[in-house]
Amino acid sequence: MWLKPEEILLKNAFKLWVTEKDNEYFVLQRRRGYGDGGGGLTGLLVGTLDTVLDSTSKVAPYRILHHTPDSQVYWSIACGVTKEEIDQHWDWLQQNIMRTLSVFDSTEDITSFVQGKIRGLIAEEGKTSLVLEDDPEKFREALLRFEKWFELPSQEKLVTYYSCSYWKGKVPCQGWLYLSTNFLCFYSYLLGAEVKLIISWDEIWRLEKTSNVILTESIHVLAHGEDHYFSMLLHLNETFVIMEQLANYSIKRLFDKEAFQGEPALSDPLQITKRGLEAHAKSEQFRAFFRLPKEENLLEVHESFLWVPFSHFNTLGKICLSENYLCFASQDGSQCHIIIPMREVINVEKPDSGSRALTVCVRGKRALRFSEVRDYQRLANTIRSRCGISASPQHSASSEVKRLHDNPEDVTLMVGQKDTSKAVNTEALMTVFHPQDVENLDPKMLKEKMKEQSWNIHFSEYGRGTSMFFTKKTRDLIVRGVPESLRGELWMLFSGAVNDMATHPGYYTELVEQSLGTSTLATDEIERDLHRSLPEHPAFQSDTGISALRRVLTAYAYRNPKIGYCQAMNILTSVLLLYAKEEEAFWLLVAVCERMLPDYFNRRIIGALVDQAVFEDLIRESLPQLVEHMTDLSFFSSVSLSWFLTLFISVLPIESAVNVVDCFFYDGIKAILQLGLAVLDYNMEALIACNDDAEAVTILNRFFDSVTNKDSPLPPTVQQASVGNNDKASHVSVDISELIREAYEKYGHLRSEEVESSRKRNKLYVIQTLEDTTKQNVIRVVSQDVRFTTSQLDELYNLFKRQHFLSCYWTMKSPALLHHDPSLAYLEQYQLGFQQFSELFSLLEPWAFCASKSTLSLWIFRLIDENQDGLINFKEFCYALDTLYGVSFTNKLKFLFKLHLPPFVFSSDPLLPVKPTGRGKVDLQAYLKQWQNEILKKEETIKDLPRINQAQFIQFSKTLYNIFHGHPEEESLYRAVAHVTSLLLRMEEVGRRLQEPSSPPAEAAQPASTAASVEASSTQEASLKETSDASSSHSSQEGAAEQPDPDWSFSFEQVLASLLNEPVIVGFFERHVHIQTKLGQARVAQLKLKANK
């Protein structure tokens, strides 16, 4: 292909290249080690250099250079992978360029003409090629190398690749970093030494950018307890962001079992691209900044100026456009941004074509003027089309919402709520249980009126409702405190819940009706916690407040069963109901749980643990004195958990806590982190002086009890009583407004982008720590029932978990994903379907089964799948392996005997589990009953086993033949089985004759002939070593047993006693098999087995 002309020096290059053709102006060269004469030392050196140097020299063994006779400078203008390709380029130059060059007088003109011509050819090729990657040819070549070097399954999608150095010890290895959907891979080849690294994203504990004396800047990866460093990246920040996105995608998909419905860029792991990841990351950042619904995606970004009427100047910023919102954020440090729902836009005007400006008119007689928009015409058309697409009910709903906000006294329900006013409260509980006295003129009420006046002035200048400007002044008013009458409206606005409610009219009422009367684990927990939610407040001492709280929590559990109900949600929802109407409280809860505090309210409260880790990092940076005294910061993690889960509501009096909630809805988790630092800073000296953790907890509790809100207009009957009133006199009181102001002054420099970055960095470590704890708990439970060592169980668990992930790597429809239930116990979190079990069992089985391998695996799977749901857990898997690797001949034989009992054998469908139904909803009573049965379950004895009939016994004999195949004593083992089979059949014949002496001789002769047939076929089989012959003898057995006598049966004691008389069989089963060797082989072969399939 043609290359952009680049100057190269040939002083030493001829040692690596051989000239094949040349003329006055062009040279065609072949790289040494390629073509004729390649290999040997030359090939080794060139292979090393090709790995270390740039991609062009590696994948293109041929090139064409341009030069002039009187110059030592050469220019590379073309390269080729094959001789035919480079010859085509050479011939084109001869026919089209050489004749033209003779007309030029100077060599500079010749070089300039050649360079221009080549650039023109590249430009023409670029116009006609429609590609998804930046450089499709290089990407295709990189993909071929990726597949060749790492031998991963063909479905694995390469996302991107980079040239970098990997530090192996203190020596850097120059090579290539490949980032795919499920793996981080590195390859280097240096002087015959090959370095190959494959790490799956789900195994990474740490992923961060670091720097030290040797490495100015590098990417640090911690996996399997080993540190890996990658440096000398040309685009280090870009590389790190892509790695971070892939790791986060893997965590969400594999650990959280997220299906990414509604996100086409991520819904299919086989179609992940770099551009798709980048677009998804930008949309996430866009939604988080403007607090938009999760359905919104960033579609367009335009730089422009926005006329700010309250400041009388144009502010520079970016217009961000999504499906249903037009947003603007300033870039000049004014911290000004605005959100305009498309449903509020009534017109788009263009003042004149020369100014590149447009005016967006919104409801309420307001207009926004954008200027210097480069593509203003297209932007105007896009906004118009979006507004035209918006359905008219949304406009009516928005106007209804606006009317409600403009008239707080109007208690009319929203459109779509029908006549359910008796079921849903239409007023905030605070207005019902503490109505404001307009005539009261005490100092606190006067201060409250002053706050309201300040906000009214703000509304008149900056707008009110969904199209209000957010500025520094808005934050200043928040810090000073929000008046009681405006709190619910502003919470709805700042959280973005107002948009959710406006676009889903009637949704909450429908949820309440659908969830009414349902009985689940979540509803049981909600009922238990209802009377623990702000019990001292009058609103929750009455049925009005309790019923509203029940409806909101139950409706949300019905809406989002993945979260359901989590402790602390009741406390938060109680406060929301005090200041917001019931439906508004529901949408505020949605905004908190699904946007502002992701992963907080679930079984493992991962989000809160991640933010605690972020808090620890901030303590190290901001409070070094405290860190020096308290080296173990885990104390702060334990004490601050309730701060994050309840937004300080559980530790502060309610009249003070609502001020914290004000800041949270405006600034997000950043406000909680700032306040936490301010609390520790305020108590620094006391904490440093304390002797133990208990004393430190006491200090913090006393401090929280002393926090007051001197401006609160609430009466004492509504204010929360402090726990430590007796000690309050000895502790100086602290005003919440002053504490918040101090937090913003000292730690307000903390940026939301830094918090998000720290969250991503710590999330990997938190999740892997939880996974490690889960593994230890599972191993502790399983180790009580098996004879494997702790280290062996550790390796088995890693293999089992990896097999589970392998079933999810390349599809969203594996059985483990479809039937995943996050509410199950830790022992059930990772399970295998039959296909996954069969693959893993084939790597760990103690014997090399020669025939009917999949059938035997199916029988084992059915046997250990106790609840017959088509999935097995780790404990069930270990039970099977422990039996087969044990030294007890009786236990192994009993296990094989049970395999041949119905329904594990002779099923109508030999390839599918008996009942692949999945687990469905969790039945708590069923689990308790199962747990009780396991406790009371007695040890199974051999007398409890049922008898097997003749057909089952013959199948049992065939299984033994399969197990012995390939063993050095195969012939002796076959003869021993044949002898036992014949003996048992003759014993049964004698037993029947004794029981039925009057039976005709013809009937008694049938079993004798059957026994002779089996013995004959067994003897014949023992003399054959090939699998095909063994299979034919099995067929002869099946023919002999086509019509077995149903009255014939054998007990386990008879089979055991007969086999004990054969020392060669007993020796075979009692021989110790080392599982450690199998574990080592399985670690290496597990991924290769998947690749081969």
UniProtKB/TrEMBL annotation:
Domain Rab-GAP TBC intervals: 481-668
One GO process term, biological-process aspect: glomerular filtration
Region listing for Disordered, in residue ranges: 992-1045
Top-level division of the source organism's lineage: Eukaryota
Low complexity bias locations: 1001-1022
GO CC field: cytosol
Compositionally biased tracts (Polar residues): 1029-1038
Classification via SUPFAM superfamilies: EF-hand, Ypt/Rab-GAP domain of gyp1p
Pfam families documented for this protein: GRAM (PF02893), RabGAP-TBC (PF00566)
Compartments where located: Cytoplasm, Cytosol
Assigned keywords, A-Z: Calcium, Cytoplasm, GTPase activation, Metal-binding, Repeat
One of the record's GO molecular function terms: calcium ion binding
Entries under InterPro entries matching the protein: EF-hand-dom_pair, EF_Hand_1_Ca_BS, EF_hand_dom, GRAM, PH-like_dom_sf, Rab-GAP-TBC_dom, Rab-GAP_TBC_sf
Main location class: cytoplasm
Signal peptide positions (record): none
Segments forming domain EF-hand: 852-887
UniProt subunit comment: Interacts (via domain Rab-GAP TBC) with RAB11B (in GTP-bound form).
Stated role: Involved in vesicular recycling, probably as a RAB11B GTPase-activating protein.
The protein's name: TBC1 domain family member 8B
Organism: Xiphophorus maculatus (Southern platyfish)
Lineage, opening ranks: Eukaryota, Metazoa, Chordata, Craniata, Vertebrata
